[in-house]
Structure formats: structure tokens, C-alpha cells
Design goal:
210 residues, 7 helices, seven-stranded mixed β-sheet, Rossmann fold, alpha/beta
């Protein structure tokens, strides 16, 4: 009897969520409603690595590109990690424990750029290993570096501090940490693309480049 009651309650909640759009997991309108008032000056590159099918990091990279006019430069692994979440976790942990960084297909030439946005998901408390490969190669000396990251609810961790350590001769500005959809939301099939909007990106840009 108790099992039946629980089942009925769960079904009722599911139906209510479907009817109401279940705001917790519904997609959000993200178009910017505020203007960019502090556009950065100089040639801009937006270097990013995005892993999940939801492409949380890539979405924000495109928002940054839309409002700054920078060049999008995605990083691609020479041998991509497996697609399943569990397999990715195992592969990443193995690389971390071995102290190795995965090879990339190519490292973008940033000699002509003045400002470099660098974005990646957060893995084990810092930026994803493919971004570490990039920063091992490109120290970005003399450039303005602007970090951003996607996380599933745990925040940026030590990512921004690690980027400062990786780019000791660059000017590193305030980073943007945004929450993308997490595994539970994506498995439900109704996860939000991002818990942030273009307005969050514009407000951040206006703040750091004012």
C-alpha cells in the first residue's frame, strides 16, 4: 500500500512538472537585454575546451564572441576522451594521477592577439586537462587573460588561481564561473542549457573592462 502511494505521488509530481514546465529543469530564455558599455580594446581570441554534449562552455564562449567580436578558437584533443560520463571520469583521473596532459590536434597561434579569453569545464577542482595542455605551451606573456569556466554546481574551485600561476607574465582579470546543466538534469532529458544568461556575460564584461 505504501509503495502504491509513493508511486502515485511520484507520478503526480512528474505530471505537475510537465504541465507547469517544471521550472527547476526548464530551459531559460538567455538573450541579452542589457547593452555592452565597456567593450575591450585590442584583438581578441576566445580559446576554449568544451566536453559535454550540452556544450556548456562552448555556449558561453559564443556569447562572449557575440558581444566582443573575438575569434573563437576551440581546442580539440588528438584522441578524445570517451563519451560516457563514467569513462571520462576514469580517464581523467588516470591522467591526473600520472601527471600527464592529453595531446591537442593543434595549438592556436596567439601572437597577434592582445586579449585572450580562456574557458573550460571544471574537473576535480580546476580547469580541464586539455586547457592545461594549452597553457603549458602558451604562457600568454604580456597579454590580458580572461578566464571563464563551467561547473555542475561546485563552483570554480582553484581554477582561476591555477590560471594565474600558469600565466605568471600575463595580466589575468576577474573570471566568470557559471553553472551549466549537470548529469542529473541531462539524464532527465529536461536539463537547462545553462543556469546563466547572456546578461550575466554582458554584466561581467562591463565590470572587468570599465
Amino acid at each position: 500500500m505504501k509503495v502504491a502511494i509513493v508511486a502515485i505521488c511520484v507520478t503526480a509530481i512528474a505530471v505537475a512538472c510537465a504541465i507547469a514546465g517544471c521550472r527547476m529543469f526548464s530551459k531559460r530564455e538567455t538573450a541579452a537585454t542589457i547593452p555592452l558599455t565597456a567593450k575591450p580594446q585590442g584583438k581578441i581570441a576566445i580559446v576554449y575546451y568544451s566536453q559535454s554534449k550540452a556544450q556548456n562552455t562552448a555556449i558561453v564562449a559564443t556569447w562572449i564572441q557575440k558581444h566582443t567580436g573575438g575569434d573563437l578558437l576551440p581546442l580539440e584533443m588528438a584522441e578524445p576522451y570517451p563519451e560516457s560520463y563514467g569513462a571520462i571520469i576514469k580517464a581523467v583521473r588516470k591522467d591526473i594521477e600520472a601527471g600527464t596532459h592529453p595531446a591537442l590536434k593543434a595549438i592556436p597561434d596567439l601572437a597577434a592577439y592582445d586579449i585572450v579569453f580562456v574557458g573550460a569545464p571544471i574537473w576535480y577542482g580546476t580547469y580541464a586537462l586539455p586547457m592545461a595542455t594549452f597553457l603549458d605551451t602558451e604562457k600568454l606573456a604580456g597579454k590580458t587573460v580572461v578566464p571563464f569556466c563551467a561547473h555542475g554546481g561546485g563552483g570554480a574551485g582553484r581554477a582561476f588561481d591555477d590560471i594565474r600561476k600558469a600565466c605568471p607574465e600575463a595580466k589575468v582579470l576577474e573570471g566568470l564561473a557559471f553553472r551549466g546543466s549537470n548529469q542529473i538534469e541531462r539524464r532527465l532529458g529536461t536539463g537547462v542549457t545553462s543556469h546563466h544568461t547572456e546578461d550575466d556575460v554582458v554584466e561581467w564584461l562591463n565590470r572587468i573592462f570599465r
